[in-house]
Amino acid sequence: MEYVFIGIAVLAVLFLFSGIKPVPQGYEYTVERFGRFTHALKPGLNLIVPFVDRIGHKVNMMENVLDVPSQEVITRDNAMIRVDGVVFFQVLQSDRASYEVTMLEYSILNLTITNIRTVMGSMDLDELLSQRDDINARLLTVIDEATHPWGVKVTRVEIKDITPPQDLVDAMARQMKAERDKRASILEAEGHKQSAVLKAEGLKQSVILKAEGDKEAAYREAEARERSAAAEASATLMVSEAIAKGDINAVNYFVAQKYVESLIALAQSPNQKVLILPLESSALLGSISGIAELLGSRSQESALKAPRAGK
Fold it and tell me: Which pLDDT score is estimated for 281?
């Protein structure tokens, strides 16, 4: 009897231990009772009915990455390219991921490959190379919608490499070089044009400033001539008054002035190398003394008129 009780106790312990199912973090286990799904076990310590319930699938609930192998795609403009990428997905409902689709990762991979060919085959090569973000967004929308019944959330689809054939790469390089040469020629032409415009503008400003300077110089010269004429008229009036009074020194003043001016002009002549002056010093000194006497008499007259004006 003792052995029977021991055997029953051992069987009871084994029965209890067979019903204890610990689930690690990041996973969920599906439970099947007689082959039918009943519920899912969450992370932690769980109990099931031994010999009645069993673990159907161990589902990874963490985000997974799926590598998309390189494949050939024909674009809308008949260019053959090779494309590869990655897909990030996460299981949200373990029961659907287990019982709505067979071989979940394989199904997602083939769905991604098919949609890559569909989306990229509807675009030109230039669009593929310049609109990679748009391609990723379109693929994400299509694949996420297709995998929704499987309890899967596709979080990201990324195209890693787009490789055109070598002859097409060479043609693109030549096209890019030609485009750069074109832009360089345009910029050089624009530079020459801007330089010509600036030179013309500078010449225009120079002409305007020169004209303004000539105008100002002419104005100053006219003002100087006016003042010189006024001074000459005043001097002529003084000489005329002196001659009217019988003062011979006034005549000597004019003669001396013209005499000195003639000597200056003769000395400054570029054709004159040797200057011979048959000059009478006494006549020149007499003329100068006459000028002094004329100016002195003029000053005395001005001094006599001043007191009279005061009275």
Answer: 46
CB 131 within 8 A of CB 154: no
Q: Which segment of 5-9, 92-96, 100-104, 220-224 scores lowest on mean pLDDT?
A: 5-9
Tell me how far CA of residue 278 lies from CA of 257, 269, 271, 275, in angstroms: 17, 18, 19, 10
Q: Does the model's pTM come out above 0.85?
A: no
Cβ-based neighbour number of residue 114 at 10 Å: 13
Query: Mean pLDDT, to the nearest integer, of 135-154?
Result: 94
Whole-angstrom distance, CA of residue 201 vs CA of residue 154: 65
Q: Which residues contact 162 (CB under 8 A, 6 or more apart)?
A: 81, 82, 83, 128, 129, 132
Residue indicated by tokens 């485009």: 179
CA 143, CA 138: separation in Å to the nearest integer?
9
What is the rounded distance in angstroms from the CA atom of residue 212 to the CA atom of residue 209?
A: 5
> From CA 297, how far away is CA 239, in angstroms rounded?
12
CA dist 145 and 139 (Å) reads 10
Higher pLDDT, 258 or 172: 172
Q: How far apart are CA 34 and CA 56, in angstroms?
A: 11
Across the range 194-221, mean pLDDT stands at 86
DSSP letter, residue 149: G
Amino acid at 68: V
Is the Cα dihedral 303, 304, 307, 311 positive or negative? negative
